[in-house]
Amino acid sequence: MWRRMERFAGPVMVVELMAVVMAMMAPSASAFNLDAEKALVKEGPQGSLFGLSVAMHQKLENKGFASVFLAGAPRSKADTKQTSHNTGALFSCPFTPDPSDCERVNFDISEFVDRESKEDEWMGVSVASQRAGGMVITCAHRYENRAYVGQPDQEQRHLVGRCFLLTDLLVPADELFYSSFCKNRDIRPDGFGMCQQGTAAGFVPDSDYIYYGAPGTYNWKGIVRVEQWNKTLAKDAIYLDPQETGDEKKMNQELIPLAFHSYLGYSLDGSRGVTNRVNVSFLAGAPRANHTGAALLLKASGQAVLIPELLITGQQLGSGFGYDVALADLNGDRWMEVLVSAPNYFSRRDEAGGAVYVYRNRQGNVVLEKPTVLTGPPYSAFGTAVARAGDLNQDGFQDIAIGAPFAGSGKVYIYHGGKGGIATEPAQVISGQELKPPITQFGFSLSGDMDVDDNTYPDLLVGSMSDKIAVLRSRPIVRVTHNITVSPELLDASEKNCGSYTCIKVSLCFTYVAKPASYSPRLVLNFTVEAEVERRRLGMAPRVSFVRGAREAEVQRGTVVLNGQSSPKCSGDVVLQINENIRDKLRPIVVVAQYGIQETRAARRGNRQEPGDVATLDSRPVLDPTQLTREKLEVNFLKEGCGSDGKCHSNLQLRPYFCSEVKEGDCTLLPTDETGAQVLSLRSQKDVTLGMDISNEPSNPARPDLDGHDAHDAHLSILIPSAITYTGFRNADRAVSCTPLNDSATECELGNPFNKGQRTKLFILLGTLLITTETTEFAVELRLSTASDQQTLQPIVARLLVRVEIQLSITGLVKPSQVTFGGRVQGESAMNAEEDVGSLVEYTFAVSNLGKPLLADNEDGTVLVSVSVPSSTESGKWLLYLMSVHTALGAQPPVPCQPAGVAVNELNLLQSSLGGARRRRRGAEEEREGGGGRKTALVIGGGKKPSATFDCVTSRCLNLLCPLDGLTGAGTVTLRTRVWNSTFLEDYIKYENMELFVTAGIIFRAKNPNVKMPDVTPIRVRLTLDPDGTVTPAAPVPWWVIALSVAAGVFVLLLLVVLLWKCGFFKRPSPYAHMPKYQAVRIRKEERQRGVPRPDRPAPRRGPRARRWVTTWSDRYANC
After folding, report:
1. Which of 10, 34, 258, 338 is most exposed, with the fewest beta carbons within 10 Å of its own?
2. How many other CB atoms are found less than 10 A from the CB of residue 1115?
3. pTM for the model
C-alpha cells in the first residue's frame, strides 16, 4: 500500500461428459494468453519507486503510432537545473527489449524557491494517458506553495499539489501547461491548504473530460474536480467552466455527503454508460469514510457542481474500501459495472486478504445488494490496483486485472467477463517470480486495454515498488475443431477385416479459426491415442494393441500440420489390432484421443524482424481453454439376441414415480393433488425415492421380431437438480449398478445387454437436505441410451411438487424453579428499585426449527412467541411483576421486545443487572442489623394449610406477543420478572404448595404459500413458591405457660386494686364538696342602715328558700 499510504505519510463413438472432460473445459488459472515468459521488463533508477504509477501511451509519428510505456518515479532525483534534491519524475520507456532505455521526461525543470518548494513533491505519483495520439497527465500531489519565505515567524507552506498536461509527444502543451486549482484559495487546513491535487488524475475515454482528486481539501474530506479541455476550443483560448464537488464557485463543503478525513478523490474513474448512456459519470473512492471506506458516484451537472448520485459504503472496518475504483462493462450490455477495491479486507474464515466488490448495473441502476466479491490470499493486499484489461480472450466481453503486490513476490489476477457478469475464479494468475528477471511487489499499479504490438489483442502494463515495470503481451487464441471417429461401428470379432486379424481404425481430423481473420499461421498439432488405459491400470490383460508406429503398445503419437485458418487436415489412420482369444466381449474397448499445439523452434527462440525489435508472439498461439481437447471413445462388440438381419432394435421403456420408502422390492407411492401430480409434504424425512419401471419388450406382441431385441450397453443417465442429492439406489434383481459422476449426474448401467423381454424395478434414493422453503418443485431428467438401434429414445422428466412443513418446537425454562418470600410488607409507593419487589425469576422460551430452515428477512413468514404471564390477582394485587422482555436469534445478542398493549416495567422501577444476587445480599445485611433494625417473625398455627394455583384462569394475565424476526434455525424469548413479595406476605402466608404457571406457544404468520406449520401444543412452565425462614410455623403452647400467665395476670390485677384503694379511688365524695363557698362578715344591728325602702326595688320575698352556697361567718369585731 505504499503507493497511496506514502501520499499521506452414438453406437460407435460415445463422448464422455464426465469429470475429466469437464476439467478439460475449465480454464486454467495458471496460464492463458498473457505471456509472462516473453514479458518486457523495464528498469528505473534504484530507490526511486519507479513503477508506482504506470500508463500505456501511443505517440503519433510519421510511421504511425509508436507505443511507449510511462512510469512514475516519485522518489527520483531532481533535475540538475533544480535546487531541490528529490522531486520525482516521469519516465518514458520505448517498445524495445532493452530493459535500461527508459528516459526522463523533462517538462518542469525550473524552480522558484521564494514562492514554491519541489522537494519531495512526488512528481509522477499519478499518470494517465488519453490513449493513441492523446494527451498525457501526470501530477505531484506534495508540491508546496510558499509565502513569506525566509521569515521564520510568518513563513507558510501549503501542500496544494499540481498536475501537468503533456501532448502525445510528451512535451508541455501550449495551453493549460499545468493545473493547480487550490493555489489561490482559502489556505487553511479546513479549506484548501492541504489540497494535494493529483493524488488521482485521468481522462474519461472518448470525451474531453479531465478529472482530478484532491483528498486533502476541507480537512481531508476531499473533493473531485472535473475540467473539459477541447483542442479546437483551446486554440482560440476558449475553456469550459470546471465542476467540483462542493461547487467550484460557492466552495461549500456541506454539499459533499461525507465527513472529515474521508479522503474523497483518493481514487477516480469516469465513463459514459453508468447511469446514462450519453452523460458522463465519475466514480470516486473515499477509503477512510466512516472508518470502513466508501465510493461516491457523481454526475456532471453542466454547471459548477458535481452532483452526488449514489453513495456506496464499505462493509468492514478498516478495509480501505474505495482504495481503487474502476468502471467496466463486464456482461456486454453497454452499461458499466462498478468495481471498488478494499485491499485491507480480511476474513479468517475464508482465508482471504483483500477484496474487490463488483456491483451489477441494470440499465443505469447500480445494484448494491449481493455484489460479487473477489478475494485474494491472506495479507496479499489484493485490490491495490484494479484496471480494465480489455477483451483479452476475444469473446466479446471486457476483462479486468487486479493487483496483489504482497502475494508472495506479487501477483496479477485476470478475471474474464461474460454474459452472466464477472467470473468468480481467475482465468490467469501471473506471478512476479515468473518473469526474467523476477520482480517483487509486482502488481502495485496496472494499465491495460491497449494493443501495443498490433496483433489486435490488448496488452497489460504492470508496475511494482521494486523500480521495475513489465509489459505482458497477449498471445493469439486459436479455436480448433476436431472430428475423431472409429470404424467399424460395431465390432464383430469373428470378422477378419485386417488380413487375418480384426482391427479398429481411428481417424483424427482438425481445422482451426482465429481472430483476426488475417492471422493464419502454420499450426502444428500434437496428438496421442491411448487404448484401454484404465484396464491396464487395473492389471487386466489388454485386448488391443497398435499395429505400427507405436513405441508403446498402448499409446500412438503423431502430428497434424494445419497450413492456415479453415484448412482441414486429417491424420493417417491409427490402427488397433484385436488380440487373439479374448474372452471379455461384454465391456467396450475404450480409446482416448487428445491433442495440443506444438511449440515450434521459432516460438521457443522468439523470431525477430530486425535487431533490436521485440519478438512477435504470432508463432506462439494458445488454444481456447473452453474447448474440449480430450475425447473418450468406446467400441462395442456385436452381440447375440438381435434380429434376423443381425441388427438390434431395442424398445427400452421407462415409467417414473415417486414414493416414500422401499420395502421388499416395492414402495409406497406419494399422494397426488387434484391435478394428479405427486406431492411431497416435507416434514422431517431426509429421503425421497424415485422409482422406475424399466422394460425391454416388443412394442407389438404379434410381431416380436420388429423390436424389443437385446439393448446392448444400456445406460440410464439421471440429471439431478441442485435441490436434492443422490444418496444411493436399490434394485431387487441386482443387475443394475449406479455411479454418481458429480453432484448433479448419476450414471446407471442397466446391463450389457439388457435382454429381450427383461423387466426391472430401479429405485434411486434422493436426499432432501438441500431443499429450502423456496423450493416449490423439482424435476429429475432421465435419459435412456443403448448401443442398439432405438430412434425413439427421448429424455423423460419426472416432476414432484414440494410442500414444506416447518417443524417448530418450543421449550421453556424458569430459573429458579422454586422461590421463597418473606421479610417485611412494603407498599407499591415505596418501591424504587426492582430489588424492592422480590425475588428475580427469569423465563426462557427457546424456539427450534427441526425441519427446513426459513429464509432470512422473514421472506417465508414471521414466527411469533405468545406468552401469558399471571401478573396480578383477581383483586388487582401484583403476583409477578414484568421487568423486561428480550428476544435473540442463535448466537446474536438479545434485543428488547415491546409487546403491543403491554406495559413492561409499568412502575418504571430502577433495573439492575445484578438481579437476585443483590436482593440476597440485602437480606443478609438486614439479618446482621441487630438492635438498630426491626426483625419480625410471623408465626403460623399448626394444622394443614391450603394450597393455591395461579394461572390465567385464577388470575389476571399479561398476554405478550414477541416476533422472532429473521428466524432461520433457533431463537429465544427471555422474560425477567419479580415475585411481588408483599402480596404473598399479606394474602398467602398461610398457604403451601403454591404454583404459578406461565403459558407459551408459537404463532406462524406465513407469507410463502408453500410453507405451512402444523399446530404446536402450548407449554406451561411451573414456578413453586414457599415462605422463607422468617415465617416460623407455630408449635402448641405448654399448659404451664398458660397457668403461669393467668396467675401473673390475677396478681397484677390485685396489686392494681390495692393501689387504687390507697389513693381513695373507692371513697364517695360529699355533695358539699362541690358547692361554691363565699366569705361573709356579720354586721351589728345598730350599725345597719335604716330607711324607707326604695321604690325601684321590688319588695323582698318572704318565706324560706334553699341556699345554693355555704356561708362562713366571721365576727367583724371579734377581736375587738
Report:
1. 10
2. 11
3. 0.60
